[in-house]
Write a structure and sequence with these properties.
Number of strands: 8
Bound molecules: iron/sulfur cluster
Number of helices: 9
CATH architecture: Alpha-Beta Barrel
Shape: globular
Helix content: 25-40%
Strand order of the largest sheet: 3-1-2-4-5-6-7-8
Largest sheet: 8 strands, mixed
Distance between the termini: 41 Å
CATH class: Alpha Beta
């Protein structure tokens, strides 16, 4: 493998050109791309939103990303060539590449190939996942992953099912596996009045997060209503939160204090 050179024609690092044939065969389906994201991992980041998600979160703000094998068909090599062109900016802004969705682990081969290429270029990688299909991330994929942004949407199994339509346990299993690997994690929790503001469950989640030992920060994300127009545009999907209010500042502070009381770094 030749590291460091750049193809004079395409501006693509030579080592990527050498692996291009392999990576061209790894297809992926994208919903969209954000070129300078600031909230899904450290620094300024290129964020690829992958299509396909097995969850049905009641508050999903990207319901159009849930469908499988839809959206922009691409391949890992094409995406890496584009990432290579943005590399200097991403490095200078202490950022990297985040794969989000949808559920990126619905397309594990694509995630693995993109992250492998990023690591060959020295670019930081972050995986934004619900963890529900964490078993699809093999150890090699995780070896190319610098940070996992892991959503725990409720800590009570019934509450989790009510919010997502699926079981909680696979997410907890994935969290424990990441802890064993000592993989840095940012845990994320969306606070939705009437759905996830169960204080007993939040206290249990705080203890669980603290005991994992690899949680660098815990983000409490207040439910907001900005994505509702997408639901209105998608007649075939039911949305039940039109009457749900955003959490008050007091409620948000209270929930954050529960996590802080466990010694977690809270945002
Ligand atoms: S995991 Fe994300 S993309 Fe999937 S349904 Fe929930 S909010 Fe939507």
């Amino acid at each position: 493998m030749i590291k460091g050179g750049t193809c004079p024609v395409s501006s693509t690092p030579v080592f990527l050109e050498n692996r291009g044939e392999k990576m061209e065969n790894v297809t992926g389906y994208l919903h969209s791309v954000e070129t300078a994201g600031t909230v899904d991992g450290p620094g300024i980041r290129r964020i690829l939103f992958l299509n396909g998600c097995p969850l049905k979160c009641v508050y999903c703000h990207n319901p159009d990303t849930r469908k499988f094998k839809q959206g922009i068909k691409t391949d890992a090599f094409s995406e890496l060539r584009t990432i290579a062109k943005q590399k200097e900016m991403l490095l200078s802004m202490k950022g990297g590449v985040t794969l989000s969705g949808g559920e990126p682990l619905s397309q594990p081969a694509f995630v693995k190939a993109v992250f492998e290429g990023c690591k060959l270029m020295g670019i930081h990688t972050a995986l934004d996942t619900s963890g529900f299909v964490g078993h699809r991330a093999d150890d090699e994929l995780l070896s190319y992953t610098d940070l996992v942004l892991l959503d725990i949407k409720h800590f009570d199994p019934e509450g989790y099912k009510r919010v997502t339509g699926v079981d909680l346990q696979p997410t907890l299993d994935f969290a424990k596996r990441l802890a064993k690997l000592n993989k840095p994690v940012w845990l994320r929790f969306v606070l939705v009045p009437g759905y996830t503001d169960d204080m007993q469950a939040i206290k249990k989640m705080a203890k669980f997060a603290k005991n994992l030992g690899n949680v660098e920060r815990l983000e409490v994300l207040p439910f907001h209503k900005m994505g509702e127009y997408k639901w209105e545009a998608m007649d075939e999907m039911d949305y039940e939160l039109f009457d749900t209010e955003e959490p008050t500042a007091e409620l948000l502070d209270h929930v954050k204090s529960i996590f802080k009381n466990e010694g977690l770094t809270v945002y």
